[in-house]
Input
Amino acid sequence: MKVGTDAVLLGSWANFSNSLNLLEVGTGCGVISLIVAQREGKVNITAIDIDENSVIEAEENFKCSKWSNRLKSLNISFQNFTKTNHEFFDHIVCNPPFFANSTPSPLQSRHFARHTDKLNPQDFFENCLKTLNIIGKISIIIPSNDYNLWEKHSIENGFFTNRITTVFAYPTKVSERKLIEFSRNNLSIQYTEIYIRKGKNMGFTDQYLDLTKEFYLPQINKINQ
Output
């Protein structure tokens, strides 16, 4: 699984303060968990994925990092994890599968990672309810057009939207992603926007670089010129 902009955005954007233990659902190569470990020096992270090869890759990446003692990966679905897990988490983070009723990918691991037949919004929030602390938070990134569906299932399971950041590839392009934070608190929603690039085929915006600067190699500044 390659490192995508969605994962970097989510890991950089989510508010992990006051979290001592975190669950990442669908870790892939482990990049979000690694970002969390770098950002928060006290949080212990459990990263799960249904794809065995992804978990092997994530575990190798975790071992190569300086935060390996706070990271572990498990080859298990979210549904099965909640059946055997007895720990409650302060934060659940997920870059969920988002393709429904579309042509399956010929590569099974990529299909599972990107299609909702293994983890749909209802399943996700039902299992969050079983394993999230009462004051815990959920952070996800989803297609903008899917927000109403995810909101519907969140409310059905007792969760409310607290923050929304609408993501734009560049100023003249329609938004394709939303960063969402949920909790059990029915608060006024905080709305913000972020633009990744200054224009089509142009460099990154200062806004995006400021959010993600701790997680890119210095060469990004050359790319941005």
The CA atoms of residues 97 and 114 lie 4 Å apart. The longest helix spans residues 52-63.
